[in-house]
Amino acid sequence: MARIHVVGLGAVGAAYASRFVEAGVDLRVVAGPERAQRYRAEPTVVNGRPYRFALLDDDLAADLVIVAVKHPQLGEAIELLRPGVGRDTVVLSLLNGIGSEDRLRAGLAGAHVPYAICVGIDAVREGRDVRYSSLGRIMFGEATNADPPTPAVSRVAALLALAGIPHVVPADMLHELWWKFLINVGVNQVSALARAPYRVLQDRDQPARQVMIAAQREVIAVANASGVALDPSDLQRWLDVLDGLGPDSYTSMAQDALAGRPTEVDIFGGAVIELGRRTGVPVPVNTTLYGLLKGAEAAGC
Predict the structure, then answer these.
(1) Do residue 62 and residue 146 come from a single domain?
(2) What pairing do the DSSP bridges indicate for beta strands 49-51 and 64-67?
(3) 185-204 burial by CB neighbour count: b if 16+ within 10 A, else e?
(4) Long-range residue pairs from 76-80, CB within 8 A, at least 24 positions apart, any chain
(5) Strand partners for 93
(6) pLDDT band at 119 (very low <50, low <70, confident <90, very high)
(7) What is the CATH number of the domain that holds 62?
(8) Where among 168, 186, 214 does a domain terminate?
(9) CATH label of the domain that carries residue 177
(10) If you average pLDDT over residues 170-175, what whole number do you get?
(11) What values do phi and psi take at 49, rounded to 5?
């Protein structure tokens, strides 16, 4: 039987973990002592069903590791994962941004770390209660993928299929990684500032939607200057996905803002500002969003 390790039982991690458990997969949650104690004390409820996920208590290597923490926790997650990573382990990072795979490759020597994103999942967590109306899909693979894909990618695809998790192995995965970056830079930052659910950004008459689109156009510009061929059709593809999301669900960054937690603004607006500096591309919208979100965090808002 395949073994899967999951680190990060937030909205995304718990939603996918529940699917693997329902499929009968040997799933273990990786957590530090304090977090493990909380998991033991209270079940994780996913769409109304309670799950007491098994916690990792040995050093057997996983076939697949799902990393679903936030960026500030990635360093700790790497340390926790290291004993359960072997030469045949595949590590999928579902973190936002465009840099987690490099950190995982450096920190988990010998593991195979393809690129990965999840798109269209609208999971929301309140305490230990997680709910979602759409699982979206996981897109993953090498930087470029042939048909058939590599054995490691094929193994992961088989596990995702077993759990009923929609997935795609695109020909150009680096393009898709930047496409997800485009999505997050706009929707996460604007929704966090507005403390608003998706319906506000689905409304074509909402000024907030136009700010989101303007921030995403800056990503297209810095991507092109960095040698990545994003174009307006990628923006339209995102808007088509946005229309299908649960209107009353919130982005992860809006959830963090509403809960008073630190946001991931540094890997969104902060990263675009740095890319703009490197490439000479002006990024005034993201500079403004970054400043407002940092100001809100400093004020405890």
Answers:
(1) yes
(2) unpaired
(3) bbbbbbbbbbebbbebbeee
(4) 76/32, 77/7, 77/8, 77/30, 78/103, 78/104, 78/107, 78/108, 79/107, 80/7, 80/30, 80/31, 80/32
(5) 67
(6) confident
(7) 3.40.50.720
(8) 168
(9) 1.10.1040.10
(10) 95
(11) -105, 125
Neighbours of 278 (CB within 10 A): 11
As a whole number of angstroms, the distance between CA 60 and CA 218 comes to: 45
For residue 13, give the nearest of 216, 252, 228 by alpha carbon.
Answer: 252
Name the DSSP letter for residue 59. Answer: -
254-261 long-range contacts, CB within 8 A, separation 24+:
254/188, 254/191, 254/192, 254/194, 254/195, 254/196, 254/197, 255/11, 255/124, 255/125, 256/70, 256/192, 257/192, 257/193, 257/195, 257/296, 258/195, 260/300
> In this structure, are residues 90 and 111 in contact, taking their beta carbons and an 8 Å threshold?
yes
Task: Grade residue 286 by pLDDT with cuts at 50, 70 and 90.
Answer: very high
Q: Are 94 and 116 in contact (CB under 8 A)?
A: yes
Phi-psi region of 48 (alpha: psi -120 to 50; beta: other; left: phi over 0): left
For the stretch 4-40, pLDDT in tens is 999 999 999 999 999 999 999 999 999 999 999 999 9
Residues 137 and 184 both lie in one domain: no
197-209: average pLDDT = 96
Beta strand 129-131 pairing with 44-46 = parallel
How many CB atoms lie under 10 A from the CB of residue 299? 7
Encoded tokens for 20: 């693997």
